[in-house]
Write a structure and sequence with these properties.
By secondary structure, the chain is of the alpha/beta class. The protein has helices at about 1-15, 50, 55-60, 60-80, 85-90, 105-110, 165-175, 225-240, and strands spanning about 20-25, 95-100, 115, 120-125, 130-135, 150-155, 180-185, 200-205, 220. The strands form two sheets. A six-stranded parallel beta sheet has the order 3-2-1-7-8-9, sandwiched between helices. Strands 5-4-6 form a three-stranded antiparallel beta sheet, covered by helices on one side. A hairpin with a 5-residue loop joins strand 4 (about 120-125) and strand 5 (about 130-135). Helix 1 (about 1-15) packs parallel to helix 8 and helix 5 (about 85-90) runs parallel beside helix 8 (about 225-240). Bound molecules: 2'-O-acetyl adenosine-5-diphosphoribose.
Amino acid sequence: MVAALNAAIAAIRSEKPKSTVVLTGAGVSADSGIPTFRSEGGLWRNYRAEDLATPEAFARNPLLVWEWYEWRRSLVRDAKPNAAHLAIAKLPNTLVVTQNIDGLHQRAGSKEVIELHGNIFRTRCVREETRSEAPDPFENLPPHCACGALQRPDVVWFGELLPEGAFERAARAVRDSDLLLVIGTSGVVFPAAGLVSFHNGLSIEINPQPSAVSSSCTFAITASAAEATPPLVEAILDAGTHR
Ligand code: OAD
């Protein structure tokens, strides 16, 4: 980890990036105590995310799906941004593209965040498609809209499209940036994982395990996000070229 981190810092010093895009997955929030999807702690009552995060699962059993989301909402509510979220927020004019629905980047102070998979504290009426902020626990599950129809979490499920324009905007930013940081994603869920291939310049991954995108990155640092992100951000800021 130290050798790769030092090599990545040396590359930042020599390339002096003017712009950075940060692509994150569940691993960036692991150090805040939120289990990732593809880890043991990510299982809930022995269901995998792929069994619950689908329109079919919701149609079959909305209560079960909502119970899972209420569990995750309570974990996120109790969590705090960690050193990685806080370091990323120090980078000026930097777009964060996240697959996470926990809002921790915004809570850390990041201003420009594309939430590819929506937000766990918003609901959407399945009939009217109206969105509502819903930060607090629900008294009754599953929640209903005033119109009588079910509310669903305003998140992207397997087989659904990303929010309109989100991927295109993210892809353009990734392509046009000097530096891409890829933090805490297994890189197996598309289209998000495909964003890495839009980048041509320096790219640095932080992940304690090899991922499906490690070999596409210039450097792969095998460390936790909270450990390795702050020194990289310091190196970028020290280079003094970031706009
Ligand atoms: P995954 O759970 O697939 O992968 C999490 C990654 O984080 C793994 O590669 C871990 O090795 C890494 N990791 C674990 N702890 C870490 C730490 N402390 N620091 C850095 N990395 C760490 O999560 P995602 O790649 O985000 O989608 O999954 C993508 C999508 O699949 C999610 O957005 C969600 C899920 O099903 C939907 O719900 C549509």
